[in-house]
């Protein structure tokens, strides 16, 4: 029978990659936004007391959902803060500071050095740009055809009256 592991003998916990933490953070932000939107929808749908009695069950249901969302939001923000701090801790050895990567509103943009691309990448870029130009031209032709068709249909409808 094996003896229980002590603190010194325990295997180290598997390190969670920062990319995975960022994905969890993204899902947390989406959850925060969704809950906030639901709070606004609930409050928008709630009628102010104007002497008209509303269904008590419906009121209790909305009140319960609103309280649940309001209870969950601080927890989600706390979780987001922990994820952020953990990501900053894990990526502190990176060369760029996040403030340099994403400028704040009103800050001057710092020029970023761009490494020269290989000829294959430049050729692929040219090919993609040419395909985009071709597709744009095709879409323009289709839009012109649709505009002419709608013009003809409207003209026929006005002649019918």
Task: Give the gist of this structure.
This is Mediator of RNA polymerase II transcription subunit 30. The protein has 161 residues and is an all-alpha fold.
Verbal overview:
With about 160 residues, this protein is an all-alpha fold. It folds into 2 domains: about 15-95; about 120-160. It has 4 helices and no strands. The protein has helices spanning about 20-45, 55-90, 100, 120-160. It is flat and about 55 Å long. The model has no long low-confidence stretch (mean pLDDT about 80).
Summarize the topology:
Blueprint: H1 18-45, H2 56-90, H3 98-101, H4 119-160
Helix pairs in contact: 1-2
C-alpha Rg (nearest Å)? 29 Å
Count the DSSP helices: 4
Q: What's the SSE pattern?
A: HHHH
Q: Tell me the helix content.
A: 55-70%
Biggest β-sheet description: none
Structural class: mainly alpha
- Structurally, the number of domains stands at 2
Cα end-to-end separation: 96 Å
- Strand portion, in percent? under 5%
Annotation, overall tally of beta strands:
0
> What is the average of the pLDDT values?
80
Q: Poorly predicted ranges (pLDDT <50, ≥5 residues)?
A: none
Shape: flat
């Amino acid at each position: 029978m094996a003896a229980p592991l002590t603190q010194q003998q325990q295997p180290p916990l598997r390190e969670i990659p920062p990319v995975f933490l960022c994905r969890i953070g993204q899902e947390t932000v989406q959850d925060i936004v969704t809950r906030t939107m639901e709070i606004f929808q609930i409050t928008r749908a709630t009628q102010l007391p104007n002497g008209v009695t509303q269904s008590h069950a419906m009121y209790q249901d909305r009140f319960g959902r609103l309280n649940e969302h309001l209870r969950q939001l601080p927890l989600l923000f706390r979780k987001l803060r922990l994820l952020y701090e953990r990501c900053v801790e894990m990526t502190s050895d990176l060369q760029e500071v996040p403030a340099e990567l994403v400028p704040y509103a009103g800050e001057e943009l710092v020029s970023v050095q761009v490494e020269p691309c290989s000829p294959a990448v430049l050729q692929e870029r040219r090919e993609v740009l040419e395909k985009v130009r071709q597709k744009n031209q095709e879409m323009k032709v289709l839009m012109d055809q649709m505009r002419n068709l709608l013009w003809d249909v409207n003209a026929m409808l006005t002649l019918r009256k």
